[in-house]
Amino acid sequence: MELGVYQAKTHLPELINRIEMGEEITITRHGKAVARLSSVAPPKTLDVAAAINELKTFGARRSAGAPLSDLIAEGRR
User: Fold this and answer.
1) Number of domains observed in the structure of the chain
2) Residues 14, 32: one domain?
3) Domain shared by 32 and 58, yes or no
4) What residues contact 33, with CB distance under 8 A and at least 6 apart?
């Protein structure tokens, strides 16, 4: 994505969110690239397999008769 200095300044919080997700942003001044913004960490990704396993484990405990209050407390950790 490319945008001018003024746009970058006025939309910085949104740009930071996009950068965290792995997008690179080029800042231009008078149509010429002057800076590139990129994340210092790898993009955040969703581990789908781990999420599915957590849901299966959660469901198995619930059907095994675990008190709902225990499950709520565990979810808050």
Assistant:
1) 2
2) yes
3) no
4) 2, 26, 27
